[in-house]
Amino acid sequence: MKREKLAxxxxxxxxxxxxxxxxxxxEARAVDVLRAYGYRQIRTPIVEPTALFTRGIGEVTDIVEKxxxxxxxxxxxxxxxxxxxxxxxxxxxxxxxxxxxxxxxRLWYMGPMFRHERPQRGRYRQFHQIxxxxxxxxxxxxxxxxxxxxxxxxxxxxxxxxxxxxxxxGNADERARHRAALVAYFESRGEQLDADARRRxxxxxxxxxxxxxxxxxxxxxxxxxxxxxxxADSSAHFDRLQEILAAGGVQFSVNPRLVRGLDYYxxxxxxxxxxxxxAQGTICGGGRYDPLVEMLGGRPAPGCGxxxxxERVIELLRESGxxxxxxxxxxxxxHQGGATYLAALRAAETLRDAxxxxxxxxxxxxxxxxxxxxxxxxxxxxVIVGEAEAAAGAAAVKALRARDVSVPFAAQRSVRLSELxxxxxxxxxxxxxxxxxxxxxx
Length: 442
Ligand code: ATP
Ligand code: MG
Description:
alpha+beta; elongated; binds adenosine-5'-triphosphate
């Protein structure tokens, strides 16, 4: 009987080995940059109590209204949710473990998030974010620090132009006055509102500004702007942020209609946008969320953070072709079974001691067939431990890639097994040196 094939959940993707080097390279560079700014990693569970997100994100948001994977644990009746974002989780963890008790914190995280959206390019039901949260810092210097960090990351990744849009949402009072003006404005033009906007008019009118419906755009363009409602403190925060960014050489434009999908943001909000990904062009969103720690039951502490959409950045990297293909290994070790296998095993371990990435041929097969495998593996070198070589305590080394002409192995040479690791590591280092001026081997 032939069994039915199983498939992954719609909108949830496998990361296949062909793409893994791109993800690994991106993650490694992102972590380097985060560490360069003093951020330390935090990992929180993927599943949290549903109340964390309804309280921490806000009831009237896209996420909580229609995107959460919520379920009841059938074994104990607990309402649980697959995390749709990680800020609420990070804040929960900081409160739970008293991390904000003695000093402010700079934290980063990465991992999968879950939102029940319509899958399309750049929009998935399981997607990944790399993000940072700075907790306990009130000033615009930390907002600026995170923006500079992101600018550095885009530069390191060489993903081409990414635009920064900036806005300030003010404080709760300022937003309340803006909100009243918005409601009055939209009410007076009720017949032009779409169904979404009508529904949000009294629950979350700010989100109408975020409407993606083209027919709503003229109405939205003329709506009252939050920046006209900012008081002295909020304006000072926003002005200082802009000064620091200008001094730091970061270009940006103020977009008074920029809001965030989450309720808890105040003051600074921003998005990094590329034109090369179509409709899903926002690769990172961030800003301040000073009320959140208290909302989640902690002693009040300001917060500021961002989240990068990893799939979207990976797509940009793939297009730009800037990232190296690091899938090839250093050496593929061939043998003829029996005693030669044991000698080959020792040779492979010696090479690994020297820091090389090595595939030892598994199973049987003629040397010719193994050579084909070696070639297909993308290895720089084939290391042959046949009967003759094993008897002489040596291995034959053959350079496999055309670009290797500059290394000491003209075509094939014999190297003593005891010296194999050093010799090959040296040859690879020479290769790396050669290539630093050209493409760069990862
Ligand atoms: P959008 O308006 O596109 O729905 P959002 O405001 O919901 O975005 P955030 O919650 O701010 O997005 O998440 C930060 C980043 O995570 C986004 O800028 C985007 O790059 C990425 N992201 C959000 N949702 C998805 C998704 N469903 N699939 C892939 N990436 C996503
Ligand atoms: Mg969304």
